[in-house]
Every structure is written in C-alpha cells, then in structure tokens.
Amino acid sequence: MHTEAAGSPHLAHHFPSLEQQEHAARMGMWLFLSTEVLLFTVLFTAYAVYRYLFPVGFEAASRLAHVAVGATNTVVLITSSLTVALAIYYARRGDSRKTVALLAVTIAFGAVFMVLKAYEYHHHFVDGQLPGKFYHYAGLKGPGVSMYFTLYFLMTGLHGLHVLIGMGVLAWVAARAARGEFGRAYSTPVELGGLYWHLVDLIWIFLFPLLYLL
Amino acid sequence: MSPSAASEAVYNSPNYLNAEAGIRSWLTTRDHKRIAVMYLGLVVAAFALGGFFALLIRVELLTPGPTIMDAMTYNRMFTLHGVIMIFLFMIPAIPGVFGNFFLPLMLGAQDVAFPRINLFTVYLYLIGAAIAVWGMIQGGTDTGWTFYTPYSTTTVTTVAPVLLGAFILGMSSILTGVNFIVTIHTLRAPGLTWMRLPLFVWAIYATSIIQVLATPVLGMTLLLVAVEKAFGFGIFDPARGGDPILFQHLFWFYSHPAVYIMVLPAMAVVSEVVQAFARKNIFGYKAVAFSSLGIAFVGFFVWGHHLFTSGQSTFASGIFGVLSMFVGIFTAIKVFNWTATLYKGAIHVAAPFVYFLGFLYFLMFGGLTGIALSTVSLDVHWQDTYFVVAHFHFIMVGATIMAFLAGLHYWWPKMFGRMYSERWALAAAVLVILGFNATFIPQFLLGNMGMPRRYYSYPEQFWPLNVASTAGASLLAFGFLIVLIYLVTSLVNGKVAGPNPWGSRGYEWNTPSPPNVLNFPETPVITRGAHEYQDPPAEATHAH
Amino acid sequence: MEAKAHAHKEFGPLQYVIVWGALLVLTAITVAVWKTHWSLGTRVTVALSVATVKAGLVALFFMHLWEHGGVNRLVMATSLLFVALLIGLVIADNATRFEYANPPYSSSWTRAPFEDAAPPLQEQPPPVEGVPEAAPH
Amino acid sequence: MNELNELMRNLLWLPKQASDYARSVDHLHFFVFGSAMIGAWTVVATTLVFIVRYRRRHALQSTEHVEPKPVHEAVFIGVPLALFLAFFAIGYPQYVELQTPPKGASDVYVMAKKWMWKFAYPGGPNSTDVLRVPVGRPVRLLLTSRDVIHSFFVPALRLKQDALPGRYTQTWFQASEPGRYPIFCAEYCGLGHSAMLGELVVMPAAEFDAWLDEQRRSNQVAAQDGQPVAAEEVDIRGNLVEQGRRIAAMQGCFKCHTVDGTQHIGPTWLDLYNRKVKLEDGRTIVADEAYITRSMMEPNAEVVAGYKPVMPTFQGKLSAPEAAAIVEFIKTLRTDAPTAEPQKGPIYVPISGK
User: Fold this and answer.
1) Which of C90, A121, C93, A44 shows the shortest CA–CA distance to B220?
2) Mean local confidence (pLDDT), A19-33
3) What is the pLDDT of residue A14?
4) What pTM does this model have?
C-alpha cells in the first residue's frame, strides 16, 4: 500500500516545492487529528463499557440531558463547518474579505455553541446532576447514574476545550487572512485550521446521539 | 553518492558542530543533528539517574529484611526507576538521538519535515521531565510506573505531577512520531523508492506509527487518573461502579505497543550494524522491512496478555494469548534473517558487532521468555513475579541498550568525527554483557520460585539469588562507567575518523564526519539500495 | 452520485451547501427516531449509523478526503481501525467475564450474588429510582 | 518420568508441585523451556560458526548479493509459528480449566485488605492469613478486596488470581499433597505489600472436616469481618489483655506495629503507653488511652513524626470494648515489666462520645 504513494509523481521532486510542503503539512495535520481521535477514544471506550454495564441507569440518566439544546448545538456546529469549508474555498481564490468574514461567522457559531453548553452545565449544576461523588440529584438514583454524568462532563468538557482551542486557532488564522497573507499560492494555515474545526464537529456528531439520545 | 563524488566545497564548509558557537545557538537550533546531540545528552543523564536508582534498589534487596532504606523510600525508588527509564530514556533514546541524526541523512534530505516542531519536542521533553522529577522529589510517587487504580487514586503520596509529566513527555513522543512519518513520506531523495529505504528507516517508521496512535490513549488515561484522584469523579472507582480492569485495558493499550516503541528502534539500529560489519546486504530485505510494520500492527492486538490473572474473561485471554504468539513470529523472522545475513559475509568483529551479538542473544532469550509468558497457563504462575522483571529487562536493557550502544559506537565517528579506543570498547562490551546476564538470570529463577515483584523484603529462601543479582548489577554499572569514560575522552584525544572509517555503504556515510550543516552539497540521487557490497560497486555501473 | 462527477475538481460553494443540507436532514432523522417508541436496539443502530454517515460526509467533503485521499485516507482508516479494536476487545472482555467480576449491580449481576458467608461489599445499591418518562425540558 | 520431572523442577528452581494442575503446568513449562533452548542455542551456534567461517580477510572485501528464496522465509515463519501455536494449544486449555471451577467444589471466600488475607468458610468459620483446605477435594476461592487490588498467589499451586475491590473473582484448585505452602500478594499494594504473607495448609480430608466442625461449634471463632464482637463476649472471656492481643493479631495490627521495639511501618507498641510522642505537625502529646484509641479510629488525624499517614481507620471494625482491650494489651508492653502478667478482670474505661 505504501508503494502506491511512492509511485505518485508528487514525491519525485526532492526539493521542498510549495506543493510538497503543503502536502507534508496536510499529512502532519491528519496525523495529529488521528491522535485527537484516539484521545477521545479513551472516553468513548469508557462510555461503551459503562453503557453496556449499566443500560438502565444510562438510559434513565440520558433523559435528563437537554435534547433541544443538544440538537440546536449540533445544527450550530454543522453550520459552522459549512462556513469554515467556504472560508477555505475563498482563501484559495485569494478572496481575503470573504475568508475573514466566514471565519468570523465560524468563531461566532463556536461562541454560540459554548454559551448553549454553559446553559446546560448551569442547569445540571443547579440540579445536582454532577459527576461521581458530587452527584446529589434526588430525582434519579441508582447504579450507573452518576457514571453517566461523569462521562457526560468529561466528554463534553474535553470537547468544549477543543472548541475553545479551535476558536483561538481560527481567530489567529483570520487575523493573518485579514493582513492578506493568503492567496492562490499559499493558504495552508486556513486549511489546517479548518481541518481542526471539522474534527471538533465530527466528534460532536458522535457525542450528540451517545449522550443525548441513547 | 560516494564521498569522492561529493563536491570539494562540502569538506571545506563548517560542520554542524562548529557552524555556530554559543549556548544560544544550540538552544534555538533547528538542525536535526544538533537536536540529536541534545537528546543524547538528555537521555544519557536520564539513564544515569535511572541506573543509580536501580543500584539502590539492588542494594536494598541484598538482604531479606530492611537494608538501607524504609519501605516507603523503596516504593518511591522503584517508581522513580521505572518512570525515568521508560519515559525519559527508553522511549526517546534511539528515535531522539539516532532517528533525528540519521533519518534525514539516510533519506538524502536536509532536515526533518518540521524542524521547529522537532526543537519543540526537546523542550516538551525537558518540561515533562522537570515536572515529573520535581513531583517525585516533592511528594514521591509510590504507585509503580503502571499507576494501577485504585491504588494510584487512593495513595497518600503525590501522583498528579508525575502523571502530568508523563502526559507532556507523551506529547513530545507524538510530535516526534508525526515528524518522522511525514519526513519519510515527503522528503526522500530522488530514486529512493520505498524498497530502497535503509532498514533503519523502516523500523523507525513503524515505531512512529505506534507513537502516534498509542500515546494519546496513555495521555488521556493518565489524565483520567489525575482527575479521579483530584476530584473523585469515580470513573475507575470500584465503589461508584467504576471498573479498575478498564484502567488496565486502557493503560496496556498504550503500554504494550510502547514496548515495541522501545525495541523497534533497537532493531532499526542493528539492521544497519549487521550489514556494515558483515559487509553484506541484508538477507531478506522485504521480510525484515515488513516484519517491522507487522510488529507495529499486531502489537496493538495483544495488550490483554498483561491481564490474564486480573479477572479478565477466559475468552478475551484466549484471543490475546493466540495473537501474542503471532507478534513473536515477526521478531523470529528478523532474528533468522540477521543471522542468515552473516552467511557468506566478511565479518569484522569490532565493538559495535559485539554489541550486535549481545543484542541478538538478549532479544532471542528475552523474546522466547516473552512467548513463554504469553502461554496463558504459564503466565498465571509468572505474572507479577521476578520472571516478568527479568524478561522485560532482557528486552529493554538487554536488547535495547545493546542496540543503543551498538549504534553509539558505530555512528560515534560520524556524529563527532573521532574514533574511540577499540580495546577499551571491547573490554567494556564483554563486561556489560556478562554483568547483564549475572544480574537477570538469577531473577528468572527467582520468578520460577515465585518471588513477586516490587517486594521490599522477602522470605529467606530467595536470598542467595538476590545476592547474585546484586553482584551482577554492580558489574553492569562498572561496565557502563567505562563506556562513558572512554567515549567522552575520545572527543578530546580520539583519532580523527575520516568520513567512513568502517567502509560502510549506508547512505549516511556519504557525508563528511561530522556532517556539515546542510548535510549534502547537492541533492543525492539514489541508484541502488543501501549496503550493497558487491564488486564492482553498483554505483560504478549505473551509468549504462 | 453528483459528487463523483466532480471527483477531480475542487468542490464549490454549491456542493458544500448540499452537504450541509444533507447533514441537517440526517440530524433531523436522528432526533425523530429518538422520539419514536421503537426498541432500544433499533434506536441505537439508527442513531449510530446516521452519526457514521454524517461523519463520513464531513470527512469526505468538508475535510477534502474525497479529493486528496491517498495517504491521509490511510491515516484516518488506520486510526478508526484501532478505535474499533480498543472498544471491541474491551467490551468483549466485559461481556464474557465471570459475571461478578464486573462492577457490582451492573447488568451482568443476574441474581443475588452469594450465600451468607460472602463478605459484604462496600456499598449497597438501590435500584434505579425515579426514571423520568421523557425529556424533562 | 517422575525422576525427570524432579530433575527439571530442581534445575529450574521451581517450588514443589502441590496439585496435579501444577504438575501439568510444569510439564508444559519443561516443553517450552526445552524447545526454546534448543532453538536459541542453534541460532547462537550458527552465528558463531558464521563468524569464524566468514571472518573478514581484507579491509574492502566484497561479498555476493544473497537473496532468500521464498522457502527460506516460509521456514523462518512456519517452524516457530507451529511451535508457538503448540504452546498455546496446550497452555490455553489449562488456563480454561483453572478458570472453570467444577461443580461440587466447596467455596472459600477470600478477602484481601492492606495487608492481610481473611478466609471465610460457609457457615461462619474464618481465619486470618492461614487457609486450610482438604487434600484431594476441589476448593473454589471467591476473592474480593477491601481497598486496592491484591493478588492471591500460591507458587506451589502455580495459581494466581487478583482480588478486586467491590466485586468478586474466582479460581479453584485441588491440592494433592498435604503440607504447608506460602501465599504471597503478587499485586503491588503499598507499604506492606511484601509483608502480606499467608500460609496454605493442606490437610488430610478427615482432619480438615474435624477442624471445620470444631470451628463451627466453637464460640471461640469471632464473627465475620464487619460484625464486631459483642461486648459481653469480651467480658465473658475474661482475660482482657490476652483478648486484646488476639484482636490485634486478627485485625492485622502486627503487619505494621511490632511489640519488641523494632521500627516498622508504624510506631512500635513497646513502651508506647504514656510515652511522649512528637507529631508530624510539631506538637508533642502523651500517648494515653484517649490518644491510642483516637489513633485507631482516626489514624491520620495525629500522625507521629517520621511516619506516613497510611493506617486505615478501624472505625466500625472495632467495637469500643475491643479497642479498649487492645489498649490494655498495649499498656502491658513495657521494657521495665518484662513479665507482663495478664491482669484479671475487665478494667477498661468505656470510651464516651464515640
């Protein structure tokens, strides 16, 4: 399978042409994204194990999640993925104005996501639906219930952290785009920032049904 | 490609050591060769520290009761030893030093794909090491390097800094892996097809895949332990429905492949050494190359053989047990092919070759005891005894350190332009190999007798073999000391090496010693595989 | 499919909007299925299949795997393989172990564990109480 | 055959085989060891022959290009794989056997805690650190732990099973040789890990039955862990000091505290009573009844300087009279009173406000 890569004309040039450098950067980013996937896999594995062991507790606890907010957040993130994909499209065509505008919209969507997330967290805090030993919600008790909230907070917390980092990265990219650094020849940072943002979206696509709907 | 073909200019231009002067030029360098030298200093320091703790442990075990320290100190000591040796030495040693130095040289490249990230990994290493060591001095973690829950989440000692340190070291390891994979994919010289890659590159490639895919799992798992200990979220807490075996699964999903992160680079080094000193191309290039990938791949399927006695299901133990047999095959292929490489060779028994022989011996016996350990019912007796300790020291200290020393001696003239004293080197090699056997063969027998590991005191029947092991350890330490002394003095008064003192035909020798800053005066064009020792040399005939 | 025709060209805004629309429709489908009273197994299957399709759309089109592919596809496929491996083998262990080696009062504790001589466990669990009928908000 | 078994067993420093299972595992061990040795030394010998035969004659000697035929690699893969799979094919069924207790095995509950073993038999009898089993009958062990993971290890049975907190694991064995065999804890569990020793006593079946019957009848045996001995019982047995010593032994106090002045994990009990002790926080305190009792119930509140706060609480595990009995026992441990004659009658001071 590796010989196929070797045969491609792309690798025949030794000196790092811009094209080759972009190829390298993109590949590095994909490798980094795969480490992110495996980082989350630990939590997905824990979720799978405890979901399997405590089906009743998890199903009951997941009904305490705010599905409407979660669904809204899904739409928000999907839409932000669209805007960031369009930003990359325009960055490649050297349209800085549209790129910056679309990136700004993406960051705004990220902010909306975080605000909605904070709203959910607030409600869970007030109701005592908290992880592990802090769980004190009187309305629902039993094996596995506090474990659901442990995983809920760990998974959404880590994801939220990634959203914040993604917003930071996109803001930095937008600032560079505003200075007109990107054009037809070079727009790699926009693309890499976009890849990161898509991954954040991709993980949420799985978190939403697992935590809210099952 | 031959030195004679290289332009005159490159020999007159400054080498990488002299190109710039001053501490600052080192701390901000992006030259892969200088980064490698920094790694060399760091990992040797870590090895000395970890080795010092190992000696203290052996002295404590000289008598059945308390000898020189109390139980708490002892428990901290073996944790320190494990954490330092694994995270600060074994994992970064060969990729960090030889990978960084020789990967671009073997690819005909000027540097790795992301030089700035490469420098960043050194700083991550330093930060991670500082946090971990500070934590161990401050609180003194007593969990063992395995951090098993619920012990690690309930112990009174400080665990969080060590977990955080290991996490940061993991990031360093991941970035190194990403860097190497991208470099191998994108920066090969013209004509350097995948099937012409030096075997060193193949094995480093396989190592990097494991680093990238396994390390994040460890990082997250350790963070979960830290969260659990700090906040009581209960994810591994048995009293809250948590499953301690889940921790073991997650931990070993990294830590078993991590064993291959430690041994694959060793295989990378000796594949070069055996060809250079037998003056012969490898027997079965494809088999050796692809078995590295095989190890990397199958190595991910076998972690459960650490859990045979943990309460894991019989079914799962069967799956992990049978898959473990397959991972042994890839190592067997390599051993047979290295041995067959000697056939019809022209063997020169110099220090690196002696270390190669030591490596072959330790890898074979370490590997076979590994197969014995994954024979499920035998493992039940040996699990968590000194047999396991001896087994993984055979692989890690035996095989990996032999390979590290083989590589260090083989490439020393290339890295620093000086020859070391061959006579001292041979004497030290023999001493190290003997001392190593004397240390760990008694530990195999202790394991057979049933002495569990991490024992501070022990019943009298284990006494004689423990004395033997401690005696061996002191011999081993003495051997390492000699190596350190003659290598350091060779920097000052060693004979000037010349570009290729071994007559090796590895690509990396087509540079002056030490190499100059930009490696190659012009991009080399590769027309033959590395280590072809036929006459006339292949490059002389490639014109037609 | 439409996308296939453009496989070698870069996607334009129109294609992105189409993918976006598909993602919204799929999200609606998951939520709708959640509201039905189908069996848990069916709902889990549908939810996870839909999530996988959505993730595939994002990866292939938004993340350009469709055009760039090659080694990056391999990277992603390999990491997903190991994800499946980790989850699959761990669950295989939990599902087949000695039933009382799983956490107390989990689904594998099918009956009251042992006779009088069993040492008591640390925590006596109540059954799951107060299960809400539907989403409270 | 038996001589060969003994020869190999001694050669490999293996302990006595106390069950048929242990013997069959050892036979696999010998097979693995033998074939591995033959294979490995063949490679070593080949290497040495090559080194001599193909030593370098001159510095720039050239060599021919040797490529393997597919058959070479097939042999390199096939031979070890066949051997390794044979190991697995023998070893795995043995493991399955070990994991599958036969119907009709008698149960023993094993509870591990820092740093002792408790064994409980159906119907109440229990013991600390000593596991008595009949020879020739299958015994199933159901293991659990009070705190962290421990591992029940009997080298003579080639048997090991982790004890997990809050849940049960199981294993079984059928001892074939009467005798006394050591039990180790094989999973690292803290300061007293290496002192967490036990003993397996394999008794003739009739003797075992008699012992168990007597235990069941006798009131001497304390109730299970977690159900403190009632106050009257302590009184009835009269000798409070002896009672204290016995309770201390049963609770595992001597894993960490000595009575002869030797320093161990915890402070020695010799001359402890009324001693002035320096605490971690710098205060000095007199070790009176109140302090000693507090140390049992809230051990980590006032830790003596130089010691680690590792003692588990005995709140709920010791009743007030039991704690008092231990205090009485400590009071008698004095260097100036070498013949600590047990006092008669209950003279403890009840602890109020507990």
Assistant:
1) A44
2) 90
3) 41
4) 0.86
pLDDT confidence band for A123 (50 / 70 / 90):
very high
Write down the CATH number for the domain with range A55-213: 1.20.120.80
For residue C119, pLDDT over 50 is answered with no
C13 inside domain: yes
Please give the residue that has the higher pLDDT: either A15 or B467.
B467
- Residue B533: is its pLDDT beyond 80? yes
| Integer angstrom CA distances of residue A38 from A42, A44, B232, B436 | 7, 9, 24, 38
Angstrom distance (rounded) from CA B205 to CA B186:
13
Q: Which of A23, A45, A134 sits opposite B186 (nearest CB)?
A: A23
Q: Summarize pLDDT for D47-56 with one digit per residue, the tens.
A: 999 999 999 9
Please answer whether residues D40 and B368 qualify as being in contact, where contact means their C-beta atoms are separated by less than 8 angstroms.
yes
The token duo for B396 is 């890690």
Of C55, C108, C135, the CB nearest to A205: C55
Dump pLDDT digits (tens) for A169-178: 999 999 999 9
Kindly list the residues from chain B whose CB atom is less than 8 angstroms away from the CB atom of residue C78: 209, 213
Q: What is the number of residues in chain B?
A: 544
- Domain at D128, CATH number: 2.60.40.420
Q: Which domain holds residue D118?
A: 106-217
CB spacing of B239 vs C71 below 8 angstroms = no
C108 touches chain B (CB under 8 A): no
Q: B4 in contact with D at a CB cutoff of 8 Å? A: no
Number of structural domains, chain B?
1
The owner of tokens 């019943």 is: B459
Rg (chain C; Cα; Å) = 23
Share in percent of chain A as helix, strand, coil (round to 5): 80, 0, 20
| Residue B104 included in any domain | yes
Q: Does residue B13 belong to any structural domain of this protein?
A: no
Q: Which range, of B88-97, D162-171, D302-311, averages the lowest pLDDT?
A: D302-311
Q: Which residues pair with D131 in a beta bridge?
A: D200
Residues of chain A with C-beta less than 8 angstroms from the C-beta of C64:
191
B317 residue type, one letter = S
Same domain, D279 and D263: yes
Q: Is D42 within a domain?
A: yes
> Which domain covers residue B435, as residue numbers?
27-536
Question: Residue D166 and residue C121: Cβ atoms within 8 Å?
Answer: yes
- What are the structure tokens assigned to D330, written together? 């400590």
**Minimal C-alpha gap between B317 and chain D (Å):** 9
Q: Return the pLDDT at C108.
A: 77
**Structural domain of C92:** 69-110
Express each pLDDT in B7-59 by its tens digit. 455 555 688 888 888 889 899 998 999 999 999 999 999 999 999 999 999 99
Are the CB atoms for B313 and B249 separated by under 8 Å?
A: no
Whether C78 has its CB under 8 Å from any CB of chain B: the answer is yes
Quick one: D110 and D213 in the same domain?
Answer: yes
C107 touches chain B (CB under 8 A): no
**Mean pLDDT score of chain A, rounded to an integer?**
88
Q: How confident is the model at residue B534 (pLDDT cuts 50, 70, 90)?
A: confident
The pair of three-digit structure tokens given for residue B445, joined into one six-digit string: 């027998």
Contact call for B185 and C71, based on CB within 8 A = yes
Average pLDDT, integer, range C105-117: 60
Q: Are residues C20 and C73 in the same domain?
A: no
- Does residue B464 surpass a pLDDT of 70? yes
Using CB atoms, pick whichever of B309, B361, B381 lies closest to residue D162.
Answer: B309
C22 and C60 assigned to the same domain? yes
At D255-278, the pLDDT tens digits run 778 777 777 778 888 888 888 888
Give the total number of structural domains in chain C.
Answer: 2
Q: Which residues from chain C sit within 8 angstroms of residue D142, using beta carbons?
A: 100, 114, 118
- CB atoms C58 and A64 under 8 Å: no
Which CATH number belongs to the domain containing residue B247 in this structure?
A: 1.20.210.10
* D→C interface, C-beta within 8 Å: 99, 107, 109, 111, 118, 120-124, 142, 144, 146, 164-170, 224-226
Cα-atom radius of gyration of chain B, to the nearest Å?
23
Please answer yes or no on whether C115 and D122 come within 8 Å at the CB atom. yes
Query: Which tokens belong to D102?
Result: 């036969």
